């Protein structure tokens, strides 16, 4: 009975905090909604840009996009301090959004361009989109460095649902109208992102974590690489299969919404931290798409659906972990956001290359030799079986209870860092539940097991005043005892 009541309280608390997060930080939610519309339509999507077929030829835009985004992430990671200084400039974010808009607009009208210059424009469009998307993701990371991982989780879930819904609505419009409208989405996203950024002190926002000594988080990088390999391999496989009779747009937006809903469900029901959600749910979920594909061609679009669900699930979780790095461990957001997404994109490139070797044969095109799709079902099935085993094995090897505290090896756990994490958690709880400064102070003492008499002496306040503050704290945090408050505090320390 007590357990069921605790679960009910946790669900109520999660819903309350989610609503508060959306109401208190609407700009980041709206920015992400329009970003997701653009991303689903043009970027990491098995149904759009990464469809490798354009009249039998290898689409140069997709290759250029992945390559350009990888280069942009690598440069932003290595020179994260310099990028932080440049990002302060008023012109920087508009230029980033302009790259995304121009690249996607060119790609939207590529079918009307003369064949002689089409290849050059595809390369240009891919480079512009890839570079702009990479730098935009870095700027999103700065926001979540200030807000924390819970805001990354809630805004990620809400924005995916909103973005998928807008994507669905756009699919009903004429293709020319919807393409140009979606191409302009980064402008709207950038406007809301700038509004969000102006809510934080400029020096703190752009200088966050720049003094923190860093070590390369090998396990986290490998996790992102594995996710990218799965995404790239299955994307190429799906592109080789005819989509006749299948509403790709419907498959896309329902799969993204399903991924967000699944993340809500597993978060509430399983009470796992981000570390365990990634390795016990996320990666095995992506492995499931290869299981379905290996069962037979009749399951190809079911496997595609599961791929998008798993990718959405993992993408939001990786964003949350990035926020944990920067918010709780004081890591530079530009560095960790660039690193994680760089390895995911590199994994995509590797996955496309692996499956591409099985999919493409040299054939005769309209104008000379070209790369044409010629899938071998046996080879594709073998690749699917291999990845079915490798993904869960990678999850088992990478899962470690110390990942969150050590930053996947990026930091050495010590008492000083543990103290800073506790302070960050306390500050986050105070922000989320609207505790006053005095309530925050008392809450911290209660979380460390101090009783009313001790707190009264420590703060030089009467016992009745402390009792009144405790009642307010319990009400706001939706707990009924000090032990439940301690449990909540410990739970929050496990992002």
Description:
This protein is mainly alpha-helical and 495 residues long. It folds into 2 domains: 25-205 and 217-404, Up-down Bundle (Growth Hormone, Chain: A), CATH 1.20.1250.20; 416-492, Rossmann fold, CATH 3.40.50. The protein is 77% helix and 3% strand. The chain has 22 helices and 4 strands. The protein has helices at 2-24, 26-42, 60-78, 80-87, 92-108, 115-147, 149-171, 175-183, 185-197, 202-207, 218-239, 248-270, 274-295, 300-328, 333-359, 377-398, 403-406, 415-432, 437-447, 452-459, 463-477, 482-492; strands at residues 53-54, 57-58, 360-365, 368-373. The strands form 2 sheets. Strands 1-2 form a two-stranded antiparallel sheet. The chain is globular, with a radius of gyration of 24 Å. Residues 45-58 and 361-373 have low confidence and may be disordered.
Features:
mainly alpha; 2 domains; 4 strands; two-stranded antiparallel ribbon; globular; 495 residues
Strand line-up in the sheet with most strands: 1-2
Kindly give the count of domains.
2
> Which regions contain 5 or more consecutive residues with pLDDT less than 50?
45-58, 361-373
Query: What's the helix-strand series?
Result: HHEEHHHHHHHHHHHHHEEHHHHHHH
Supply the CATH architecture of the largest domain: Up-down Bundle
**The CATH fourth-level homologous superfamily of the largest domain:** MFS general substrate transporter like domains
What is the level 1 CATH name of the largest domain? Mainly Alpha
Beta-strand segment tally: 4
What is the helix tally?
Answer: 22
As for the CATH topology of the largest domain, it is Growth Hormone, Chain: A
Q: How much strand content do the residues show? A: under 5%
Average of per-residue pLDDT values: 80
Secondary structure class reads: mainly alpha
Distance between the termini: 26 Å
Largest sheet: 2 strands, antiparallel
CA radius of gyration is 24 Å
